[in-house]
Amino acid sequence: MDERGFREASPHRLTLPRPYNAYALTTGDLAYEAGREDLHVLYRPLFWTSFMLADWLVDNAWLGAKSIVLSSASSKTAYGAAHLLQGQGCEVVGLTSPRNLAFTEGLGCYDRVLTYEDVSRLPRTQTLYADFAGDEQLSARLGAHLGDCLVHQVVVGITNQEPAPAGTLAETGPGMFFAPDQMRKRIGDWGREGLDRRFAEAWKEFLPVAEGWVDIVHSNGPQSLERVWHEVQSGRTSPRTGHIIIP
Mean pLDDT across the stretch 17-22? Predict the structure, then answer.
């Protein structure tokens, strides 16, 4: 362990693939663009999940779905995936809160946007639910409405900030999407360089679009960090705001 607290040989680090287990030098990085460092900080780690989720869905023929529903649709990971899935042959629907409805509709990457209260307006067609919110009550209402039309449910995130009950996947129901699993598959299909090249192409196309979706706010010091943390955790932060905090 070095003076920063990193233990490079720890088993939990060695078993995870990039980008979870590596630092990247900008020299030779296919996805790096000078002058957009703030966007790299805000989006790039999240966009890996967006990229692999979209790739997993297309790779598996949408798991038989005709409609993909994403909760927490105003979140960066969700709308990154929606951007990649747009025009790929399946309807992409976003669910969001009333306060974020206008922002989410304005993104233009969803075929339709509904509030959580309007789940009953979802058409009863073969649907895959990508749960970015981790809201059990929402999942239950969506399942009750869609019934057998809900062909698959996968948990991607927990923006709802409410703890879920412990248990195995068999006990809790939906599967958990784990991006490194799809990364390992694609490294086998394309090689590491092939995966990096495809990610870089998607990232460079997404970056100028995302630039118009975020207002970057810079802050300094631990007090700013604490303030921003509480704002984000309480849900008071606008989805347009991207915080960069410098120690």
Answer: 53
